[in-house]
């Protein structure tokens, strides 16, 4: 199954791995050698269901109720009922027919791609999220160029495993101790492939869609007027390395597609640093253009590639690169546990001189070795990226291939494998870069970021008191906003629908009648406030409602994507926009002032993204073993993140007090 051949670097032997292997051995070339093919379950995944129209209408009314006055609710109910009995039925039938004619995919997949690629907003802050990886506690592996080398090798091992169908299928195990076992894999191997997913369900193991994985590497978003496009170069053998605005194409696979030896890759990165040290920072950092408004970037690119040399270099060396590695300098900042915001803000959007935001994956590595992933979002969602992120961290922790003691293979002067990308810059491009830089700098300067680590709510605490961690955090966000701003607003929590073929995401609406009732009750004056036991019962009701909404969303039974697809159908068919989409209710619930996202990972140090509306809060949060954390982004003079963070801490305090008091009263 695996190819073996003599290699010019057979003298290199890994002494860091758990066993001694050559560079062309399975152990080095592949991250995993799964007994089940990577896409084993793909064919048998169920299709994403289209909810019943009456259910989506009911769920829409329930979700918007906390945001509306009684009079507004009545008007909304009338409009929704007309929609349900009239044009909504026609659009629903058209959507069902289109879905039936395209059984290879999901009803949301193409409209979702179109939505992402047609939006003209800049990618940083609006779309590209940030995941920051935990540092390596071993100093010999935390060095910038060493960590970059190990991350590149692990990325390539992941990619080659994926391409060779050797990466473990993505499966969500309800009880990993019982199902994530050799016995489970043996049973799955003999299950008929057409029914493998359903056989897996018997083990309470849920296979997930992996159709997005092939776009993790070798993919670029190309700006076009009106709508961008994604281009793929899966057979590329080089990566794009950026340093102080300069760009380099660095070969990391040999002519046969094997991963180059660690000493060779380390040497080539060191050659980049040497080349860069011998010249000034780029005076016209072309990457800044990728931070701009998409039509503006499309026009600049079109003019830029009218030069044949530029067109060839851009397409062959930049667009076709497997992924991007950005080696930042000391001037770009390092991680400070007590003051995380400056570096996190830089990694999220930066000043863009040393970025190429159009690449599917960019590894950002600070001077102190702090590592983050910034990814272009149109091609895929968090499930694929988080799998890659986790595997990357585990592999570099378990078996790093180089350290500060590793002797590198010199590559200075090897211009066939370390290629400075020298474009021909004209005055129009200089002007475009300058304009894009100023616009991005202004946007980044207007961004505010606040961080909260709250020690009294954590995984053990939630387990001790029988609490749903996610529900408690989301309830705290609602209470924080109600305390600070005396109201309720459109709130968004993303939920994956990857249990279905070509599923993307569904929206979970965490502002409910139950959370509203609790917030109003706990903020009552002491003399009229319900008892701790009664408030705890309300918390449990919030959790029950939250859990049901999450389950519905994950099973494709939310309402947001359905209404989105019906609207898309109307636009595609030239049908006038139905009145439902003009209602105050629809406008408010889609004005996501509180936009939240969480990723559970032992590898994650921090996660962040920009607000989705100008006066909103972008909240990346997580619950760890020793704290609950939130990173809140806002735009200055539009929303006050500090006020929200302070209110969130007070909300945590109130909820903790209720939990402890109600628990004490039961003893």
Automatic annotation (TrEMBL):
Enzyme active site: 377
Biological processes, Gene Ontology terms: fatty acid beta-oxidation
Catalytic activity as recorded in UniProt: 4,8-dimethylnonanoyl-CoA + (R)-carnitine = O-4,8-dimethylnonanoyl-(R)-carnitine + CoA
Residue span, Choline/carnitine acyltransferase domain: 48-649
Highest taxon of source: Eukaryota
Keyword ATP-binding: no
InterPro entries to which the protein is assigned, alphabetical: Carn_acyl_trans (IPR000542), Carn_acyl_trans_N (IPR042572), CAT-like_dom_sf (IPR023213), Cho/carn_acyl_trans (IPR039551), Cho/carn_acyl_trans_2 (IPR042231)
SUPFAM superfamilies, per database record: CoA-dependent acyltransferases
Keywords carried by this UniProt record: Acyltransferase, Fatty acid metabolism, Lipid metabolism, Transferase, Transport
Pathway: Lipid metabolism; fatty acid beta-oxidation
UniProt similarity note: Belongs to the carnitine/choline acetyltransferase family.
Record's protein name: Carnitine O-palmitoyltransferase 2, mitochondrial
The organism of origin for this protein: Drosophila rhopaloa
Primary gene name: LOC108037241
